[in-house]
């Protein structure tokens, strides 16, 4: 079987890993800058956002579903997590674009404000959604 050059030399795989790393770091760090509390490693393609209140899980899920965001959104609560550590997990891939992540961040920002989910950075230290999007490369490179 004859493989394309990009598969033979591994360049396609390296490019996918680079894109996945950018996506994971961008989403994780952007959520923190918007005021959310996240868990896990910045390089993980599964990005957990803490909801804490199990009563907000169904609302968050429904509101995300209505927005038809292009990234998988999975809510996780008791008994999979302790009662007060309910969370949502965003599942990224190398196929997602920055625009996909920006769309997800826009939805998170709106829903997070409505459901009072922003308990990370104080208001004065948070970035706006526009600032997060404009400074994406800087955000990914820091840390």
Description of the structure:
With 143 residues, the protein is of the alpha+beta class. It is built from 6 helices and 3 strands. The protein starts with a helix and ends with a helix. The model has no long low-confidence stretch (mean pLDDT 92).
Overall structural class, as computed from helix and strand content, comes to: alpha+beta
* Computed CA radius of gyration, to the nearest angstrom: 16 Å
Distance between the termini: 43 Å
The number of helices is: 6
Estimated share of beta-strand residues:
5-15%
Stretches where pLDDT is under 50 for at least 5 consecutive residues are none
Q: Summary?
A:
This protein has 6 helices and 3 strands, in the order ααβαββααα. With 143 residues, the chain is an alpha+beta fold.
Annotation keywords:
47% helix, 3 strands, alpha+beta, 143 residues, 6 helices
List the helices and strands and how they pair.
Blueprint: H1 5-8, H2 11-33, E1 46-52, H3 57-67, E2 72-76, E3 86-91, H4 98-114, H5 129-134, H6 136-141
Antiparallel strand pairs: 1-3, 2-3
Helix pairs in contact: 2-4, 3-4
């Amino acid at each position: 079987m004859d493989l394309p050059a990009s598969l033979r030399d591994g360049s396609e795989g390296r490019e996918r890993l680079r894109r996945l790393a950018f996506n994971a770091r961008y989403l994780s760090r952007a959520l923190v800058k918007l005021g959310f509390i996240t868990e896990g490693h910045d390089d993980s393609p599964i990005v957990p956002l803490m909801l804490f209140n199990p009563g907000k899980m169904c609302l968050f899920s429904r509101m995300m579903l209505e927005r038809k965001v292009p990234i998988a959104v999975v809510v996780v609560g008791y008994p999979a997590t302790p009662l007060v550590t309910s969370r949502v997990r965003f599942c990224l891939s190398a196929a997602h674009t920055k625009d996909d992540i920006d769309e997800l961040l826009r939805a998170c920002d709106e829903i997070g404000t409505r459901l009072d989910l922003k308990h990370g950075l104080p208001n004065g230290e948070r970035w706006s959604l526009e600032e997060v999007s404009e400074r994406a490369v800087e955000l990914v490179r820091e840390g």
